[in-house]
Design a protein that fits this description.
Blueprint: E1 3-6, E2 9-10, H1 23-30, E3 39-40, E4 63-66, H2 78-90, E5 95-100, H3 106-109, E6 121-126, H4 130-141, E7 147-152, H5 162-165, E8 172-176, E9 186-187, H6 188-200, E10 204-209, E11 213-216, E12 219-222, H7 228-234
Parallel strand pairs: 1-4, 4-5, 5-6, 6-7, 7-8, 8-10, 9-11
Antiparallel strand pairs: 2-3, 11-12
The structure holds iron/sulfur cluster.
């Protein structure tokens, strides 16, 4: 299934430990853009854009990762979000993965017809270490959401989320190391332990990327960005239930 990216707004504020080396801040700095200014992008209506044949550029059955250079529930986007929900409602056959760390904002930002959640929406919560997992996941699991996923990215330490997986309310877990020059280490043993937790609870697990500094058997490997997905795949830790 084709996966697309959609950033209806751009810009964010550093929020927790995982944000320390946020790539969006690094890229914006090179282009002399102030990342703390959240602005609507020219792609805010991407799922409704059509090609020359009058067909949607993003086809039915495809997925869209949404808000990779911001946070779907960031405060500054409150004034635009209703229009975005409206776009999501119009593309019922496209699946939207909405990324956030700001779990405490979800309830006040869901639309009036949300009920138990939209069938075509997965909310993907980031939890990069045990502290953020224990703070965010209990809130996340208590919000009515049809499809939930968790991304441990960048994975900063060994974490145990078994008790949250046991609830059967999380459909999928992703994990990645950190990329680029200031990257913190991601350890194979941490990823393996998380993969095991998912396997024991029959939750799909995808090790998406090793990050730039990957430790295995006590050795530190420096992985170029364009190889980090391939290396993660070779680690053979995915659990595709
Ligand atoms: S929440 Fe995401 S986009 Fe925002 S600063 Fe943190 S890592 Fe960057």
């Amino acid at each position: 299934m084709k996966k697309n990216m959609w950033n209806p707004w751009h810009g964010c504020h550093k929020y927790s430990e995982g944000c320390l080396n946020c790539y969006m801040f690094a890229f914006d700095k090179e282009r002399k853009i102030d990342s703390n200014k959240v602005h609507l992008t020219k792609d805010y209506n991407l799922p409704l854009k059509k090609d020359r044949k009058g067909e949607y550029q993003i086809k039915d059955g495809e997925q869209i990762s949404t808000c990779l250079t911001s946070d779907f529930f960031i405060e500054e986007a409150d004034k635009w979000r209703e229009e975005i929900w409206n776009i999501i409602r119009q593309r019922k056959n496209v699946h939207f993965n909405l990324f956030t760390k700001r779990v405490d904002r979800i309830t006040s930002c869901i639309p009036s017809d949300w009920d138990r959640g939209y069938e075509n929406v997965t909310i993907v919560l980031t939890a990069e270490n045990q502290r953020t997992a224990d703070e965010r996941l209990p809130i996340f699991l208590n919000i009515p959401i049809k499809h939930r996923a968790v991304t441990v990215s960048p994975m900063l330490e060994m974490i145990d989320i078994s008790k949250y997986l046991k609830t059967k309310k999380i459909e999928e877990v992703y994990c990645s190391g950190e990329n680029y020059s200031n990257a913190r280490i991601c350890d194979y043993e941490w990823v393996k332990a998380l993969s095991e937790q998912c396997k024991q609870n029959n939750v799909r697990f995808v090790f998406f990327s090793t990050g730039s500094k990957f430790k295995k058997d006590g050795k530190l490997f420096y992985i170029p960005y364009n190889k980090s997905k391939e290396q993660a795949h070779k680690a053979n830790l995915d659990y595709l239930n």
